[in-house]
């Protein structure tokens, strides 16, 4: 799997997710075997770049190459300038967001709302590709509305503009995240393009990863929500694709070390106040479905300091050893 001159170590990619794929999370997923990760979406509005949130999203210090920065907006000139800014900031790949379905993004005619205006899509692609000397990739959906899926035309326009790789979520904007992802159109796109195509949507297990690769013929798969609280899914999928066999569930003590290490990274990255609060959702994802997790989370949410939060997490995970050496998920 190549993106421009960069050869990825495999074809498993971390999907960009706002509020999730910050530097600590990207680094952790890569440690567990993800071949590539894309940053959180960053606005092309230059007036927002000095905000603390934007500065943190554009922080790539110590991250494994290639570094990919995702930009969002609707103005070709602003997006071109945002691409130049991110390259100067260390990005080795620029990714354009035309897939986000969230209302506050679409209301600004950004994200998947752009799919309603194919002329503007073309202008944006041309402007960004011509603005930088690094590979530019595109993340998009099947179309804006069901019955008006225009991904084939969008994909062909992207290839002609010089886009280096195309990631497609198998839903329209109208679908949001409801229903099942559809893969037939992704397969059709792959058959019509020569650039790498990345399939995204509902990949939550090793078997599903193999099925999506088989059904779409895609060059790679992109995993988003299933990696939340389970970054070792990349290790599990890589092993299954290579051997056809499942790894056993991870050991409790390994995941204790992983989670506490993740918390340390979050605390250092965001600081005491924000680090404690941002960590809560990650802890909830890690512990979902485990023994006594509902009661534990209520205790964890009440902690107001990073030290107290880490302590209750450590105590809870050590307590899971009473049920066995490996994680045991209860049926939900």
C-alpha end-to-end distance: 36 Å
Mean pLDDT: 95
**Structural class by sheet pairing and helices:** alpha/beta
3D shape: globular
Explain this structure to me?
- The protein is an alpha/beta fold and 332 residues long.
- It contains 13 helices and ten strands.
- The strands form two sheets. An eight-stranded parallel beta barrel has the order 3-4-5-6-7-8-9-10, surrounded by seven helices. Strands 1-2 form a two-stranded antiparallel sheet.
- Strand 5 (68-72), helix 3 (76-88) and strand 6 (93-98) form a beta-alpha-beta unit.
- It is globular, with a radius of gyration of 20 Å.
Structural key phrases:
single chain; 332 residues; alpha/beta; 8-stranded parallel beta barrel; two-stranded antiparallel ribbon; 13 helices; 44% helix
Map the helices and strands:
Blueprint: E1 2-3, E2 6-7, E3 12-14, H1 23-31, E4 36-43, H2 52-57, E5 68-72, H3 76-88, E6 93-98, H4 103-106, H5 118-131, E7 136-141, H6 151-161, E8 165-169, H7 184-192, E9 197-200, H8 206-216, E10 220-223, H9 233-243, H10 252-270, H11 272-287, H12 293-302, H13 306-319
Parallel strand pairs: 3-4, 3-10, 4-5, 5-6, 6-7, 7-8, 8-9, 9-10
Antiparallel strand pairs: 1-2
């Amino acid at each position: 799997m190549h993106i421009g001159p960069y050869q990825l170590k495999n074809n498993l990619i971390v999907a960009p997710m706002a509020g999730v794929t910050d530097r600590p999370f990207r680094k952790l997923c890569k440690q567990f075997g993800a071949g590539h990760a894309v940053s959180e979406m960053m606005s092309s509005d230059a007036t927002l770049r000095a905000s603390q949130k934007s500065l943190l999203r554009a922080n790539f210090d110590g991250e494994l190459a290639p570094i990919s920065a995702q930009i969002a907006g609707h103005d070709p000139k602003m997006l071109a300038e945002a691409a130049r800014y991110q390259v100067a900031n260390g990005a080795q790949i620029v990714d354009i967001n035309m897939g986000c379905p969230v209302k506050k993004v679409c209301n600004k005619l950004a994200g998947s709302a752009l799919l309603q205006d194919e002329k503007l899509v073309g202008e944006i692609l041309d402007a960004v590709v011509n603005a930088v000397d690094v590979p530019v990739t595109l993340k998009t959906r099947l179309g804006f509305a069901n019955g008006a899926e225009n991904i084939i035309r969008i994909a062909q326009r992207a290839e002609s503009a010089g886009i280096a790789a195309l990631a497609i979520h198998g839903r329209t904007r109208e679908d949001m995240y409801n229903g099942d992802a559809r893969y037939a159109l992704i397969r059709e796109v792959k058959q019509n393009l020569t650039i790498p195509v990345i399939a995204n949507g509902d990949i939550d297990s090793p078997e599903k990863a193999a099925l999506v690769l088989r059904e779409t013929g895609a060059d790679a798969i992109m995993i988003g929500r299933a990696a939340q609280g389970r970054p070792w899914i990349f290790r599990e999928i890589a092993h299954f694709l290579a051997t056809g066999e499942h790894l056993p569930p991870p050991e409790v003590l390994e995941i204790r070390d992983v989670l506490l290490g993740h918390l340390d990274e979050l605390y250092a990255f965001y600081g005491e106040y924000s680090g404690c609060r941002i960590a809560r959702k990650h802890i909830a994802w890690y512990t979902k479905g485990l023994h006594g997790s509902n009661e534990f989370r209520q205790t964890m949410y009440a902690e107001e300091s990073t030290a107290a939060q880490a302590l209750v997490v450590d105590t809870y995970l050590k307590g899971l050893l009473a049920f066995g050496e490996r994680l045991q998920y209860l049926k939900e």
